[in-house]
Amino acid sequence: MAEGAPDNGGRPSAELRILDGSEVTLRLDAQRRLELTLSDGTVYQDVRIAPAFPITRPNRFFYFFDSEGKEIGLLADPRRLDRESRDLLFAQADEAYFMPRITRIIRVEEQMGTGIARWEVETDRGWNAFDVVSRAESVWFVGGNRVVIRDADGNRYLIPDLNALDRRSRRLADLHL
């Protein structure tokens, strides 16, 4: 852990440190924990990543926190990272903010009188079924044709582009979103 990091309880600080991707290297240590090295030689171990805008800008803006939850800084543009660091960043961010992407809607069955709809879908992580309790409180349009659906257990699913769905899936989405 680097010295002099402000204690902010794992939340972004008032004075945000912007990290330049060309000055950051990421790797996994021997215990497979994320390590961040800055060009000045400062090394942070057991680093945590938090996407700043995981839904609207999933491949930009990443917060880094040290092992004690103190903010290291914000990486605004991961394109400046070396290839290995960038691949590792995206893999770690995926684990930090798990949100399967719906690629096909197989079936949606509304349970009469309950307000609950049972969804069966194909995602980028395989088949899944989940219940949606209230459309008004569980479905968000988050820019363009992107939709986030929250199931009864609080899990979130993303439809990255409604227009990219097959015709049958799109029809089901139109009926139930």
Quick gist of this model?
16% of the residues lie in helices and 36% in strands. With 177 residues, the chain is an alpha+beta fold. The radius of gyration is 19 Å and the shape is elongated.
Q: Count the helices. How many? A: 3
Order of helices and strands: EEEEEEEHEEEHEEEH
Q: Let me know the average pLDDT.
A: 87
Spatial extent as radius of gyration: 19 Å
Going by helix content, strand content and strand pairing, the class is: alpha+beta
Helix content: 10-25%
Strand content: 35-45%
Low-confidence stretches: 1-8
What is the domain tally? 2
What secondary-structure arrangement, pairings included, does this model have?
Layout: E1 18-19, E2 24-28, E3 34-38, E4 43-45, E5 48-51, E6 62-65, E7 71-75, H1 83-96, E8 102-111, E9 116-123, E10 126-132, H2 135-138, E11 139-141, E12 147-150, E13 156-159, H3 167-176
Parallel strand pairs: 1-7
Antiparallel strand pairs: 2-3, 3-4, 5-6, 6-7, 8-9, 9-10, 11-12, 12-13
Key words describing this protein structure:
177 residues; alpha+beta; disordered N terminus
Provide an overview of this structure.
With 177 residues, this protein is an alpha+beta fold. It folds into two domains: 18-96; 102-176, no CATH class. The chain is built from three helices and 13 strands. A four-stranded mixed sheet has the order 1-7-6-5. Strand 3 (34-38) and strand 4 (43-45) form a beta hairpin. The longest helix has 14 residues, at 83-96.
